[in-house]
TrEMBL record:
A motif (Histidine triad motif) lies at residues 103-107. Residues 10-118 form the HIT domain. Signal peptide: none annotated. InterPro entries: Histidine_triad_HIT, HIT-like, HIT-like_sf. Coiled coil: none annotated. It comes from Streptacidiphilus jiangxiensis. The lineage of its organism: Bacteria, Bacillati, Actinomycetota, Actinomycetes, Kitasatosporales. This is Histidine triad (HIT) family protein. Gene3D superfamilies: HIT-like (3.30.428.10). One of its GO terms (molecular function) is catalytic activity.
């Protein structure tokens, strides 16, 4: 069921502390941690602690939590000091879009002057 932790979900296990991660920020409702395969100098994932399979499901079921996730992504960008030079927030929704972990998450990417060229 949406919102409930899934035993087979990698990010639910990270949220529960069963799998280690390099935490960047944590709130009552979100966890931000470094991607294990960074695509940019700053590559942080922000996930809701509640399980939703993708961003669309999260926004549909809990628009307020979706807003919290986006706000936390902005705070991560600020703390990582990429808010001035520019950064991207990316949600991959569905395997055709590159989603490999089916727990809603946003990628915070930045820290490189070539950001536009690399990701366009």
């Amino acid at each position: 069921m949406a919102g409930e932790a899934q035993a087979d979900c990698l990010f639910c296990k990270i949220v529960a502390g069963e799998i280690p991660s390099t935490k960047v920020r944590e709130t009552e409702h979100t966890l931000a941690f470094r991607d294990i395969n960074p695509q940019m100098p700053t590559h942080v994932l922000v996930v809701p602690k509640a399980h939703y399979p993708n961003a669309a499901a999260l926004a549909d079921a809990d628009p307020q939590l979706a807003g919290v996730v986006l706000a936390e992504a902005g705070r991560v960008a600020e703390e990582e000091k990429v808010d001035q030079s520019g950064y991207r927030l990316i949600f991959n929704t569905g395997s055709g879009a590159g989603q490999t972990v089916f727990h809603a998450h946003v990628h915070v990417l930045g820290g490189n002057a070539g950001l536009r060229e690399k990701l366009v």
